[in-house]
Amino acid sequence: MQQLGQRARQAARHMARASTGAKNAALLAIADALQRSEAALRAANDRDLAAGRAAGLDEALLDRLLLDARGIAGMADGLRQIAALPDPVGAVDELRARPSGIRVGRMRVPLGVVGIIYESRPNVTADAAGLCLKSGNACILRGGSEALHSNLAIAACIAAGLEAAGLPATAVQVLEITDRAAVGLLAGLAEYVDIIVPRGGKGLIQAVMQQARVPVLKHLDGVCHVYIDDGADPDMARRIVLNAKTHRYGVCNALETLLVAAGEAAVLPAIAADMAEKGVELRGCERARAQVPGMTPASEADWYAEYLAPILAVRVVDGLDKAMEHIARYGSAHTEAIITRDLGRADRFLREVDSASVMVNASTRFADGFEYGLGAEIGISTDKLHARGPVGLEGLTSQKWVVLGNGEVRT
Amino acid sequence: MQQLGQRARQAARHMARASTGAKNAALLAIADALQRSEAALRAANDRDLAAGRAAGLDEALLDRLLLDARGIAGMADGLRQIAALPDPVGAVDELRARPSGIRVGRMRVPLGVVGIIYESRPNVTADAAGLCLKSGNACILRGGSEALHSNLAIAACIAAGLEAAGLPATAVQVLEITDRAAVGLLAGLAEYVDIIVPRGGKGLIQAVMQQARVPVLKHLDGVCHVYIDDGADPDMARRIVLNAKTHRYGVCNALETLLVAAGEAAVLPAIAADMAEKGVELRGCERARAQVPGMTPASEADWYAEYLAPILAVRVVDGLDKAMEHIARYGSAHTEAIITRDLGRADRFLREVDSASVMVNASTRFADGFEYGLGAEIGISTDKLHARGPVGLEGLTSQKWVVLGNGEVRT
User: Fold this and answer.
1) CA dihedral B159, B162, B165, B168 (to 10 degrees)
2) Which residues form the Aldehyde dehydrogenase domain (chains A, B) (predicted)?
3) Contact A371 B409 (CB under 8 A)
4) Which domains, ranges and CATH numbers included, belong to chain A?
5) B45 vs chain A: nearest CA distance in angstroms?
6) What's the predicted TM-score (pTM) here?
7) Which residues between 97 and 126 in chain A have a beta carbon less than 8 angstroms from any beta carbon of chain B?
């Protein structure tokens, strides 16, 4: 593990000075290698699938594990898209002249070594490696044990592509130890790893957080809120609530608790009808239930719940302040939206709600790196330091100060 | 401690939405209160000084503890300067229109609650509180026990100023528990504290790092390097080395190890003469000693040393790559400078040296928030995430995503 860390650190120094051209050439060569190796990749994946079936994995897990022709083409396309993104590394902010005579600016540089810990989907191997490569970082990838053969086959293509472009193959290393202990080992390599990105369920993320001795880029929960403000357009409110709750249930930017200003509670029967059509269960406070007979009563636990399922908590609140209090108390600082026509309250919501993404008159489902224009996404962070919300290439970099002088000294 | 944390969290929500005008009014009112309260401040400081003398504190420590008329005026001036700085909070980056119809940007927001742990200098109380206040944060300050009366007297002026401006006095709380256990308590308040800034010696910073359950903004060492490149102007090299080493010895951006390209080793006798005149001891590698008879031999430990004293380690290296290898191996990622006439090597040094500040033809002593134009400095960080190098108001803020829509939903 120490050796692996040392190799990554060495590769990181090489990657930090790699040209944009070499990095893009590697990304395209990896994409080609993946498509050329379809037979080998599918054979490796078949071994994982057979072992998974023998171990009694359920269909959902086997489905996530599957790497078919479409999945392979998808990985290759993803890498080509990353190659087309601008290179963040080396960009220097405005250089400002200081009274002392020096000029001062900031240069964007890679973080160094990124550890990625993920679960069954083998495509994460190519996706995460591509983002680290483009941002000039080395990475150590620890995928799930059930996908090991698939991941190693993908790693062989990555190594071939890196070497074809004259870059060190050790810039992307896939751990062959896949048990839980490897999580602790990787998370504890403070000397050789600059940041850990866990991608997976809450259990995995909590395990990484507990063991990490380096910063972790993560979000634990996505208890997202929509607040329907006094005087909101009821049709817009219905449309956004429907989309935020039912577009996809199992995602972190899905709506989980709907807050409605008391004056607009009359919109609830229509929303309840929309939800009933989609098979979504409503759980409401007393005032919400007064509008929709038969609604399940919400308990305190419902306000904290990230259902990731066709269930929606509903609470009637006395205006904006109470809505923001609810969000501050029960929310997870991920994504919240207000539906309003009032400029002042929109502005207060934007300024005062302390979440990674705050929205006016839009669906929480937009909280996503592609939708925000980042081109790609390594993860979503609900922490305040470094990167917040959807994190793309820039979040895998840092800025150092550069000073240009002509022999100046301090007096 | 929990109550204190809760009060800080509540105050932080208030401060986050405070107007620039109110924050500046508070800063000016605190400055006035400090100057009006000179007698009370000096009486409180006398109590600390008397207790310090009785406890046998040495003169250097008593000197740091002293708060005289000049010190009080200095604190007040510092606060007025912070009031004059631009408010980082609320600024929104370019809003970009996305194909979906939403507009996306980032808004700068306070971090929330900042914990500051410091040692004997009481002026840090006003200085740190002022920076936190201007950046819209609440703060909890834990100063040294030897300065408790002084700190509480300053805190009374801060509370008066906050209240005069209609802001919550609990936005700045000074801990009355000053033993080491308080460090652990504050560093462990993960629910109520967003970041800890330790200001003081290495022992304090290590204690905070070990106990912190929240991010720590810090630098542990400043093992700064100057590298004299092949073909460098020898006069410029002498001037910069003299300034970087001898301008002040006890500061983190002072030069500690001088690296000289083998072709330029002949500059060493002149540098040795400059250093001898200032009483600086040189400790050199074999090749450095060949140039300067009588130089003390350097041991491996000297390359790692942050002397903070009139001692300079000197090593002759075979060009840029070896210099950068030395810095990567022994350095502390704080500040390094190259003296060169070669554009290509200057560029490689800037890009490849992985330190918070990298300089061309300038003294390492410039690594400072005021010299960089930040207007003020809460500390210097050698970590890569969030803020790097000198940290001013911006480093006490974060950016959240804002999305403006007209009813858009995701398809």
Assistant:
1) -100
2) 6-263
3) no
4) 2-217+388-403 (3.40.605.10), 224-366 (3.40.309.10)
5) 32
6) 0.91
7) 98, 100, 102, 104, 107, 109, 111-112
